[in-house]
């Protein structure tokens, strides 16, 4: 007999479920629960899973299918566990793997949690498991509440443990990218921008026509908020523009040209040129905008000046010139030097722009000087010294034209002499005319196609440049003659105190004096004479010589002589006033205040390089220079003595000053007595004096000065002696000024002392000299100590005397007070 199948004992059925809304809870129940919360604590510790396993039952299922149903449930649970264990998800934030030294890659992963809702068991499905879930017994209210509480606790724990993983799983790709960009540090972002700039610049330099759009991206990166990125972007764009800018000005096509049908190559070239021009314009606007910010000033001006030097022929040259010349007198030394250097290179390299930029720059500087009323830095005018002018421009064409005219005249005369040959040579003449016409047409086409400018255009530009330069120079001279406010120009003038632009103006006039029109020479010489101090104003105002320094007045004299020398054939001007000024300025010279180089140059140009002087004037300068050599240092004395020797060599009659007559020189002249304070050298009567100063100068501490003084005193009055002066006053001044820094006169003094001892009859061996020098050097510290002690004692003595005097005064006052008290007591007693 077969075994009987055992019946499955089912648990009792649960009471019907009542919804929460229909349950009524009284106030007494709430009060009881609140008072006895500890009694309900076991509910939270109940295992709802075990309860559900015991409570669940399967309805409407046959006994044969019940076992297979349980097996399917078991398989499903095992599969869920495997998925939970093996299911991994790569974190999208840290998507890049880590490579170890062994070469293995490790990914940062997060376990994927299967999220099931509380009501998932009640959801119906199409599968068999879902059908089976329909037959599951519903949970009780207490079990549901406990289950919900547990789910909430688990959710809170998961939120605390892995908050970032849940956010990554729920967010979209755009949000993830935004978080990635936010998490990147500022340094990484800057490094990426720097690498991007390098890549774009390299690509542009390799093939600019195909990658011209990269310029816009580089310009956009240079608008970053970080200063370092902005500076790097500006420098990168500067390097790219210097390399890819063409050697011609870009002309954008007109509307008619845009409507025309063109080839792909022309279209590509037009796009390249238009893009380059637009980005270049935006770049210049960016530089001019950053010019006002102190952080970017030096970088922007370096970029502007570099562009002006590298591509002066390209578009928007006017904006570059305006920015540079506006700051050519900047108080910042770096910016001013950059601007001046770029303008000088612009003047020196006219082949890059054909001279047009030179004319524009000179006109802008002239307008700047006019606008600021000549109150600018001297460097703003000194740039004119870099200008160069071609004096022989157009002369070959004139000679060719003259030859052609002569040839035509000769032909006319020949035709008049031989009228019978005209009909025979008509064909030849026609051929020659045709040939000449075709040659002229070819020459015209060649000039139009070539980049070289016409000679007449170059001459026109040179004349415009010269007129602007001399207009500026004459404006500065007129302004120097006018009364000015000292406070406004003291900062620009510096230590000299004169007009700030006068010195570079005089240097420029001296350089370009041979190009000045002869009609303006008389006005120029009158200005220079008045500036040197020879004239006064018509309204009787203060003399300009009182406002100018000695160096500036000497420069005026030098410029006047240079102008006369350059235009010697065309001018006939008396320079007596300038000699008078030099004669008076020699005494007004001060070594620390004035420039010795200017004085030496004036002595060379006015006295040494000039032709034969008047005897009275030469004698006056000889005597004045000898007196000057006694009063100042070795460099000034050497320059004066070199000039004095030159004058004595050229003027033989002035050598009578070397004779030691009882009543002065042997050739006194019209004035019998020497007047050392005379303002006019012709009225000083220097021929009546003697050069006794040479005797003192021969004992000068400097050996070079004493040597030249003794050589001058040995010059005789013989007429046929010929002397050749090799050293100029300027050379003598510069050599001794440099030598004076390392010159030590101690050895000369010791030698003179030894000579005196030898002359007195004392025999001192030669080996004693250096020993004495060594002992003097070693005993110097001891002498200093003794002197310091001595002066300390003297100071103590003076302090003691002062204190004793105060003590005597106080003791005397005390005695007087005691006497006063005694007298007062006597008066009270008598009363």
In this structure, how is the largest beta sheet organized? 2 strands, antiparallel
Shape by Cα distribution:
flat
The oligomeric state is single chain
Structural Rg: 54 Å
Helix share bin: 55-70%
Low-confidence stretches at least 5 residues in length (pLDDT < 50)? Answer: 1-5, 113-137, 165-171, 416-422, 485-491, 535-542, 747-778
Count of extended strands: 4
Total of helices: 34
Please state the average pLDDT score: 76
Kindly report how far apart the N and C termini lie: 169 Å
Sheet with the most strands: spatial strand order: 1-4
Structural class, by secondary structure, is mainly alpha
Fraction in beta strands: under 5%
Keywords:
831 residues, mainly alpha, two-stranded antiparallel ribbon, two-stranded antiparallel sheet, 34 helices, 61% helix, flat, disordered N terminus, coiled coil, Noc3_N, nucleus
Kindly describe this structure.
- The chain has helices at 27-35, 48-55, 63-86, 128-134, 141-161, 163-170, 173-183, 186-206, 214-221, 227-244, 255-259, 264-290, 297-310, 317-326, 333-348, 356-371, 379-382, 395-417, 426-449, 455-481, 486-493, 502-511, 521-531, 550-566, 576-588, 596-608, 615-631, 634-650, 693-697, 703-713, 729-739, 746-759, 768-778, 780-830, and strands spanning 88-90, 98-99, 105-106, 109-111.
- The longest helix has 51 residues, at 780-830.
- Helix 8 runs parallel beside helix 10, helix 10 (227-244) runs parallel beside helix 13 and helix 13 packs across helix 14.
- It is flat.
- The protein starts with 26 loop residues before the first helix and ends with a helix.
- A two-stranded antiparallel ribbon has the order 1-4. A two-stranded antiparallel ribbon has the order 2-3.
- Strand 2 and strand 3 form a beta hairpin.
- By secondary structure, it is mainly alpha-helical.
- The protein contains 34 helices and four strands.
- The protein is 61% helix and 1% strand.
């Amino acid at each position: 007999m077969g075994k009987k199948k055992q019946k499955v004992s089912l648990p009792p059925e649960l009471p019907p479920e009542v919804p929460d809304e229909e349950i009524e809870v009284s106030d007494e129940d709430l009060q009881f629960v609140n008072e006895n919360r500890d009694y309900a604590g076991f509910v939270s510790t109940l295992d709802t899973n075990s309860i559900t396993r015991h409570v669940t039952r399967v309805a409407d299922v046959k006994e044969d299918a019940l076992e297979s149903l349980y097996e399917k449930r078991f398989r499903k649970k095992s599969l869920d566990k495997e998925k939970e264990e093996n299911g991994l998800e790569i974190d999208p934030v840290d998507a890049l793997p880590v490579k170890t030294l062994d070469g293995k890659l490790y990914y940062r992963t997060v376990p994927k949690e299967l999220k099931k809702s509380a009501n998932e068991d009640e959801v119906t499905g199409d599968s068999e498991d879902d059908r089976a879930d329909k037959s599951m017994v519903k949970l009780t209210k207490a079990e549901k509440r406990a289950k919900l509480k547990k789910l909430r606790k688990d959710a809170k724990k998961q939120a605390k443990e892995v908050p970032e993983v849940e956010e990554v799983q729920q967010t979209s790709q755009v949000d993830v990218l935004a978080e990635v960009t936010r998490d990147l540090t500022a340094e990484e972002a800057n490094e990426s921008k720097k690498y991007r700039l390098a890549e774009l610049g390299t690509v542009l330099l390799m093939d600019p026509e195909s990658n011209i759009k990269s310029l816009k991206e580089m310009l956009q990166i240079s608008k970053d908020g970080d200063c370092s990125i902005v500076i790097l972007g500006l420098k990168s764009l500067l390097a790219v523009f210097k390399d890819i800018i063409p050697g011609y000005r870009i002309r954008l096509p007109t509307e008619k040209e845009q409507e025309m049908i063109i080839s792909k190559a022309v279209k590509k070239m037009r796009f390249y040129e238009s893009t380059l021009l637009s980005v270049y314009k935006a770049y210049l606007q960016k530089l001019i905008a950053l010019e006002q910010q102190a952080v970017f000033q030096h970088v922007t001006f370096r970029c502007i000046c570099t562009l002006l030097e590298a591509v002066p022929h390209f578009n928007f040259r006017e904006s570059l010139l305006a920015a540079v010349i506006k700051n050519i007198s900047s108080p910042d030394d770096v910016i001013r030097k950059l601007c001046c250097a770029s303008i000088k290179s612009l003047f020196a390299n006219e082949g890059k722009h054909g001279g047009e930029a030179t004319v524009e720059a000179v006109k802008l500087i002239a307008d700047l000087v006019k606008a600021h009323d000549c109150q600018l830095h001297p460097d703003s005018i000194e740039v004119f010294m870099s200008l160069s002018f071609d004096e022989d421009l157009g002369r070959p064409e004139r000679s060719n034209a003259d030859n052609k005219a002569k040839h035509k005249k000769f032909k006319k005369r020949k035709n008049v002499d031989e009228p019978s040959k005209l009909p025979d040579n008509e064909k030849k003449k026609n051929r020659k005319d045709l040939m000449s016409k075709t040659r002229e047409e070819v020459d015209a086409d060649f000039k139009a196609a070539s980049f070289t400018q016409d000679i007449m255009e170059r001459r026109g530009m040179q004349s415009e440049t010269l007129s602007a330069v001399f207009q500026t120079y004459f404006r500065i001279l007129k302004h120097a003659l006018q009364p000015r406010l000292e406070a406004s120009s003291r900062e620009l003038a510096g230590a000299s105190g004169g007009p700030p632009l006068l010195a570079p103006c005089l240097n420029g006039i001296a350089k370009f004096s041979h190009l000045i029109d002869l009609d303006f020479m008389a006005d120029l010489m009158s200005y220079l004479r008045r500036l040197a101090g020879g004239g006064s104003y018509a309204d009787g105002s203060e003399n300009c010589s009182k406002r100018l320094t000695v160096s500036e007045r000497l420069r005026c004299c030098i410029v006047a002589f240079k102008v006369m020398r350059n235009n010697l054939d065309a001018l006939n001007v008396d320079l007596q006033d300038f000699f008078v000024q030099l004669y008076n300025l020699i005494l007004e010279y001060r070594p620390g205040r004035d420039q010795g180089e200017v004085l030496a140059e004036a002595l060379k140009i006015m006295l040494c390089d000039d032709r034969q002087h008047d005897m009275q004037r030469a004698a006056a300068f000889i005597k004045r220079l000898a007196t000057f050599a006694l009063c100042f240092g070795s460099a000034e004395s050497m320059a004066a003595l070199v000039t004095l020797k030159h004058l004595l060599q050229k003027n033989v009659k002035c050598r009578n000053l070397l004779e030691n007559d009882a009543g002065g020189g042997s050739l006194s002249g019209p004035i019998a007595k020497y007047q050392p304070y005379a303002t006019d050298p012709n009225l000083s009567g220097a021929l009546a004096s003697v050069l006794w100063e040479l005797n003192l100068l021969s004992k000068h501490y400097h050996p070079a000065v004493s040597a030249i003084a003794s050589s001058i005193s040995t010059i005789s009055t013989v007429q046929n002696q010929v002397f050749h002066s090799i050293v100029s006053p300027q050379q003598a001044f510069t050599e001794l000024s440099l030598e004076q820094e390392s010159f030590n006169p101690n050895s000369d003094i010791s030698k003179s002392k030894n000579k005196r001892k030898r002359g007195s009859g004392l025999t001192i061996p030669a080996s004693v000299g250096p020993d004495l020098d060594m002992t003097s050097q070693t005993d110097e510290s001891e002498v200093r100590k003794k002197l310091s002690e001595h002066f300390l004692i003297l100071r103590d003595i003076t302090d003691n005397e002062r204190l004793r005097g105060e003590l005597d005064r106080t003791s005397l006052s005390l005695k007087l007070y005691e006497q006063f008290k005694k007298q007062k007591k006597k008066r009270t007693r008598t009363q």
